[in-house]
């Protein structure tokens, strides 16, 4: 019995010494962590807990302004078995963290790449974030994510993160609309490079999936392969595209961001795009956006009609367009002009500060009017000041009712001057066309058959004088 008591006493003493040694090592490590934290963070309360061994920090915040990190509470735990390993991995629980990043500008950006503040020289076996928020302000864009929950790990220079953010708002200063929705992501990273293995954005009228990489989060360089489903009106508003857009489209593309500049290129396809209140049928095309402008190309198929092509280049308040077999109805709707023309055009147009200039060639083979729409063949120049003044001219313009030279100027609701001369075959149709395009009823005599005609329409816009001579 005496030997058993001595053995039990020796074992208990050894256990106490081992436990005491573990407590000493644990306290040493926790105090080491404490010193590291105090070097980079401010806080309101910090305390050590023995069972389980942990460090609890309340109201923690970085001393730096960008990036700035704060949290309501951070709990760092280390298990007794971990004390005996070389890496000594930690378990970290972060409640209501907030990360704010301002893009570095000027001389500060030349001093080197700022790094996110994580000074702890330990691996993170498991990290949990609840109720997080992220803010980013760049030169032209900003991001706010909230209601974030995440799980992450860190081993030396490597980390992985799986997160969900219920509310996300992305905004460009040049845009009239912002993107809002829910985000899920899975990323891995080493140092200042983050590999985005999967990111999904789901909004009420915008859905996207992407993968790519982000370099240097404080001064982000981003490249993402994207897959999109969206309402065209949203993307038009977001990137400040010209004209009025409706309908939905889908496509795949590439988004890049460097030094605050975003470049986005994608193909797209749609069955229901409406441009300036004109249904466009089946549309396939490409979009390239960068800086203050971009390019949109359309291949348009309307039922059994020949394919139309249009390219629109825009920058600031200037729009340039090139069309092949394109019907001008959407453009004329944009500048609020009646357009009783059924013929497509080959040519170009510009819109600057709301003013339209067009140089077009009509190439209609059939010169037969249909449903108050008239065919044309020949070249024409059209201009519109965006307010009241509309001018047009053409030489040897062929239509279903005449082959004429036309010079005209109209100031809506004020004055007009129109000169038409040439071979007229159907004055009734001529009267109908002029009445439709000027939204004004004219009482031309109804003369059928061929002949020479000279028409002068001038004076008050509502009550113009008409002089006609026929031979």
What does this protein look like?
Helices cover 14% and strands 56% of the residues. It is mainly beta and 471 residues long. The chain is rod-shaped.
Mean pLDDT across the residues is 81
The major pleated sheet works out as:
27 strands, mixed
Helix content: 10-25%
Q: What would you call the shape?
A: rod-shaped
Distance between the termini: 143 Å
Structural class: mainly beta
Poorly predicted regions: 4-22, 105-121
Q: What's the alpha carbon Rg, rounded to whole Å?
A: 36 Å
How many beta-strand segments?
A: 30
Count of DSSP-assigned helices = 5
Q: Percent of residues in beta strands?
A: over 45%
Summarize the entry for a quick read.
The chain is mainly beta and 471 residues long. It has helices at 2-40, 80-83, 232-238, 329-334, 427-437; strands at residues 41-42, 45-49, 54-62, 68-77, 90-95, 98-102, 124-137, 141-155, 158-172, 179-190, 193-202, 206-215, 221-231, 245-246, 248-258, 261-270, 274-275, 278-279, 282-290, 293-301, 308-315, 318-326, 345-352, 355-363, 376-384, 389-399, 402-411, 415-426, 448-460, 464-470. The strands form 2 sheets. It has a 27-stranded mixed beta sheet that branches.
